[in-house]
Amino acid sequence: MKFGIATSVIRRVEPAKSLEILSDLGFKYLELSYENFIATKASLSDSWRGIRDAISKLNISINQIHAPYEASKFESCSREEVMKSVKSLEPWFKVAAELNSIVVIHPALTTHRTIEKTYMYAKKLEALNIEFFSEVSKLAEDLGILVAIENRVERVFGNTIEDLISIIESIGSKSLGICIDTGHLVASDLDVVESIKRSKKYLIALHLHDNNGYMDQHLPPMIGVVNWESLVKTLKEIEFGKPIIFEAICNEPRVEICINWAKLTKIISDYLLSLVSP
């Protein structure tokens, strides 16, 4: 079992700098988070050289890349908007192909909802997601990468593991899998262990973080209500072999606080590893 961390834990610094700090703290497996691009107003094109240089000189692996959040938010359900969104993902997918990384994407969601019955809105979102991820999977297949669909925290279609499985099985592409976000499950009153077991066939990525049981706080482990001992034992039981990524998001203005979050996560990850080691 291998633990890693997302750069979102130190989101207020440039992506490359965050990689350096986390490497110095002993993290080898990392997710390149979109949070750093938001917080520093950096673009992928401007940041890529620094990211590539950091990877080349550090003993780290970028196992996951979080796609831009706006790529899966739609004003309408038009074909034109879907294709425009997929086009916007191309640079991120090409970086993922170079780094041999999995791309994590949220299910598609409309930015506004018309007055309609709940089940009709759910069916609309289901159709939108099948169309969106059908096109996403074609791009992924062309570049030889995997895409992990992450369960949303919003209680709409895309919130449950069953929703994600239905998208994947409707499309039938081997390029698609599931990213389980533990904090989103807990905030939605969904069982973490049962969700992991149910997603076993398609599970290719993880976002682990904690919260108070009803807010999506993205806290480090052991600060909220998640049963971490049970979680890691379940991951061992299903023989999950990819790096397990902690996705705390530190919004504190002082970087020193966020670095301490990362240090705490490293200490706890070592403890959790001890629970499942021979």
Quick structural summary:
With 278 residues, this protein is α/β, with parallel strands linked by helices.
CATH topology: TIM Barrel
Which band does the percent of strand residues land in?
5-15%
Structural class: alpha/beta
Name the CATH superfamily assignment: Divalent-metal-dependent TIM barrel enzymes
Could you name the CATH class? Answer: Alpha Beta
Number of helices: 10
The rough form would be described as globular
User: What is the residue-mean pLDDT, rounded to a whole number?
Assistant: 95
**Strand arrangement, major sheet:** 1-2-3-5-7-8-9-10
Question: How would you sum up this structure, described in words?
Answer:
This protein has helices at residues 15-24, 34-40, 44-57, 79-99, 118-143, 161-171, 182-187, 192-198, 228-237, 255-276; strands at residues 3-6, 29-32, 61-66, 73-74, 102-105, 109-110, 147-150, 176-181, 203-208, 244-246. It starts with a strand and ends with a helix. The protein has a single domain, classed as Divalent-metal-dependent TIM barrel enzymes (TIM Barrel). It is of the alpha/beta class. The protein is globular, with a radius of gyration of 18 Å. The protein has an 8-stranded parallel barrel with strand order 1-2-3-5-7-8-9-10, surrounded by 5 helices. The chain has a two-stranded parallel sheet with strand order 4-6. Helix 6 links the parallel strand 7 (147-150) and strand 8 (176-181).
